[in-house]
Amino acid sequence: MDGVIIKKDEDSDRNDVESPGIYSRQCGPIFQDLNLRESEDNPGGHLLPKVVPTSILERRSEFVTEIRERLWISPDKPPELSVPNCVYVIEHYDESFDKALKELDSAQVIGVKLEGLNISRSGDLYSVSMSTRNAVYVFDLTQLQRSVFRYGLSYILECSEITKVFHDVRLSSDMLEHQYGVKLNNVFDTSLADVTFFTTVHREGFMPRFIRSYQSICMEYLGVPAESLFFHIRRTNRSDKDEAMFWRFPFTKQVILALSRNCMYLLPLYDILQRALLYHFNRATEIFLGIVRDKRSYEAEVLTGKVEKNPNRLPKVVQQMFPSWNMDKKKIEEEGEVVDGPFVYQDVGDNVPDKICRF
């Protein structure tokens, strides 16, 4: 289970999960609504709480402003957010399992999240969550066991025609290949897309030193409110205990909601980050579309002659559109940031809310 790791308190002997009220931040997620009602229209499914995007952030970095000025209609108006409204927990090899695989196989792009203890080649996998545009499918590995890959998940994950959207795929890829023999194919990583966009539009071409959390980019790019996300605080000196505290078997409504929220925003992130990666390209295309078309007849005639005479020359207006990456270390340091080689130590953006609850 991904989460935010924070340092232990000075009195580490008292800093344990069995001591409520002592620790300054209780460990666990925020749950705005635990009423996962059964869906009347989708048998076997549970309705997910409605998500209303917002432009409000408790902590607002300069990069947030740049994201929203470039990718939102208005910095104060979040984009429309289309997310799944139903979650299915797959525990048996029955009709629900076959239906889930059919839906996933027919999708062009899906979100994927592996959850468990110490996700890696030496860890324990408890669930695989996959999201489409309409639903989240949570495959319970404690019930289905590793055969779930042989019976269909391997095909989905290795299929080159289905784009798999992950946030920081490194350890998931390691676990899938070394424990289950699954070699991921056609992957879009939202953490790398965020890094790429940061580098191309922010901080003089310096690369960010850190990969930011899934929760942070959900809030900054999509306007997802904190109460519609899952936050799991883990302490460095109690990481295993804090991690294990989350899990309940069979999955409770709290666990189901948390697993859903860790996956359900991956496709909206994919959509907006695709636009982010193509930001300069799309601007240049708009310039090309109108560079002659929007001129008066005489100016258009002059420009037409220039294009015909030297069609391979890149227009100056397009050259000026792209950022000039001077990598001016002094300028960045004067703004209060730390530069280390090609990296800038940016705000990681872990906007951990104050209202954290226990199980």
Unreliable sequence segments = 5-27
End-to-end Cα distance = 15 Å
As a percent range, the share of strand residues is: 5-15%
**Broad structural category:** alpha/beta
Q: Nearest-angstrom radius of gyration?
A: 23 Å
Mean pLDDT: 84
Helix and strand string, N-terminal first?
Answer: EEHEHEEEHHEHEHEHEHHHHHHHEE
Sheet of most strands: 7 strands, mixed
Number of strands: 12
Count, helices = 14
Strand order of the largest sheet: 2-3-6-5-4-7-8
Could you describe the 3D structure shown?
With 359 residues, the chain is α/β, with parallel strands linked by helices. It is 38% helix and 14% strand. It has 14 helices and 12 strands. The strands form 3 sheets. Strands 2-3-6-5-4-7-8 form a 7-stranded mixed sheet, with helices on both faces. Strands 9-12-11 form a 3-stranded mixed sheet. A two-stranded parallel sheet has the order 1-10. A hairpin with a 6-residue loop joins strand 4 and strand 5. Helix 6 runs parallel beside helix 10 and helix 7 crosses helix 10. The longest helix has 13 residues. The protein is globular, with a radius of gyration of 23 Å. About 6% of the residues have low confidence.
Protein traits:
seven-stranded mixed sheet; three-stranded mixed sheet; 359 residues; alpha/beta
Structure described in brief:
By secondary structure, this protein is α/β, with parallel strands linked by helices. Helices cover 38% and strands 14% of the residues. It is built from 14 helices and 12 strands.
Helix-strand layout with pairing:
Layout: E1 4-6, E2 45-47, H1 62-71, E3 86-90, H2 95-106, E4 109-117, E5 124-131, E6 135-140, H3 141-144, H4 147-158, E7 163-166, H5 170-180, E8 187-189, H6 190-201, E9 207-208, H7 214-222, E10 233-235, H8 239-246, H9 253-261, H10 266-277, H11 279-290, H12 297-309, H13 316-321, H14 329-334, E11 339-340, E12 343-344
Parallel strand pairs: 1-10, 3-6, 4-7, 7-8, 9-12
Antiparallel strand pairs: 2-3, 4-5, 5-6, 11-12
Helix pairs in contact: 6-10, 7-10
